[in-house]
Amino acid sequence: MIRSKFKTLFLAVCVTMMALSMIVLPEESFEASIRGLNMWWEIVFPSLFPFFVISEMLIGFGVVKFIGVMLEPLMRPLFRVPGVGGFAWAMGLASGNPAGAKLTSRLRQEKQITLIEAERLVAFTNSSSPLFIFGAVAVGFFHNANLGIVLAISHYLGNVLVGIMMRFYGYSPKETFKQGRKKIPIMAALRALHKTRIQDKRPIGKLLGDAVTSSIQTLLMIGGFIILFSVINKLLFVLNITSFLASIIGKVFVILHLPSLLTIPFISGLFEITLGSKLVSQVQESTLLQQSIVTGFILAFGGFSVQAQVASILAQTDIRFKPFFFARIMHGIFASIITLLIWKPVYINWLQHGHFSAPAFSMGRHTKNWWELYTASSIHYGPLITIWALAFYVFILLRQLPSHSSK
Asked: Nucleoside transporter/FeoB GTPase Gate domain location, by residue (predicted)?
């Protein structure tokens, strides 16, 4: 009872302090809010919207069930999750945070996975996309395409280790599974696809409308969290709270032989990975290895902004958030350790001295790299995509109003 009252008081004080800070610092709050809105408006919405809609359609048409039967011999023994988890894993890897949580929640709502399986699955299906790791971080911030290979290996290998670790979460001796077949169960997969499609009696138009509505509702929620945490991050920095926390974490960094100047970027990255990664790349008093270790942890941890998005998505189901949060900490530790272990054999011996380089990200000295071209196109076409998608969303809602009012 006392703990609950203390939690209530703590949350009330935090929200009140934030409101007062926004009143006292309106210009800084406004700039941070615009920054978060631009990120969602230009990049996040156009990037994730197609993935979310296609995912909903694939679930409705039974394709996910088909993939689940096909991947059962791999996913079940390795991660103790059904084969449909392979679809969530692949889509989460391709489209980035928080697609894995979105798909896991849908699979749970469809009752294709149990509660324990869902909590195992969401722990390792959320990751940064290759586009973000190579384009934004490696090339955009560090101006080093080869560094993207190291960050990608540590990030995705660390996620696999998290999945293997989480296979023991909630394990019961009663939990058994059939051994994978030697032959690919193609016929069983086709039967599952047809059965799922028959059971979903919605016409194609209805299915598409539901997919758009669900996807945009999720993306609106994501946009709200991006803007909110952009403001929180800025206020913490202006109020010197970030510096105070940095003085505490700096003692841990000294033990780990990391420069104390990386503490403020690290704390910023705990809230928002894009800003944190950019600030880490600007610390000239540290080595590239030290920057990579800290950046690897930031990318794996995901930031409180992404975690709040995931928590909001999981709240629509019975999936608990604590296992996901624990997995993010372990992912950060794994990614940092892997970065340290592979630095010399991969980056030094192979990428630098082995005369190997990542795919060319720029064609010449005066030519923009592919991330700059992507960002420029996002600024021009991203808002247009967002406007049309929101207009279509409003159109669907207006069409549904008469049916609800008649009832």
From this structure: 44-140
Q: How far apart are CA 74 and CA 288, in angstroms?
A: 37
Residue 6 lies in a domain: no
Say if residue 230's pLDDT is above 90: no
Give the separation between CA 398 and CA 407, rounded to whole angstroms.
Answer: 15
CA distance linking residue 247 with residue 253, whole number of Å: 10
**pLDDT band at residue 320 under the 50/70/90 scheme:** very high
- Give pLDDT tens digits for 93-129: 877 888 889 889 988 998 889 999 999 999 999 888 8
Residue 345 phi/psi, 5° resolution?
A: -65, -35
Tell me what percent of the chain is helix, strand and coil, each rounded to the nearest 5: 80, 0, 20
* Cβ count near 250 (within 10 Å): 17
Residues ≥6 apart with Cβ < 8 Å to 47: 95, 96, 129, 131, 378
Unique residue bearing structure tokens 């920057």: 291
**CA distance between the termini of the chain:** 44
DSSP assignment letter at 171: -
- Whose CA is closest to 124, among 331, 332, 333? 331
Task: Give the count of domains, the chain.
Answer: 1
Q: Give the pair of three-digit tokens for residue 401.
A: 């109003």
Beta-carbon count within 10 A of 362 CB = 16
In a domain, 18, yes or no: no
CA dist 123 and 168 (Å) reads: 12
Q: Is residue 389 part of a domain?
A: yes
Q: State which residues form the domain around 110.
A: 26-406
d(CA 49, CA 172): 38
Nearest CA to 161 out of 300, 307, 362, 302 is that of 300
DSSP letter for each residue of 195-242: HHHHH----HHHHHHHHHHHHHHHHHHHHHHHHHHHHHHHHHHHTTHH
- Take residue 377 and report the two structure tokens written for it: 């196109």
Q: Is 371 domain-assigned?
A: yes
The structure tokens 């909903």 sit at: 56
Which of 291-328 are b and which e, b meaning 16 or more Cβ less than 10 Å from the residue's Cβ?
A: bbbbbbbbbbbbbbbbbbbbbbbbeebebebebbbebb
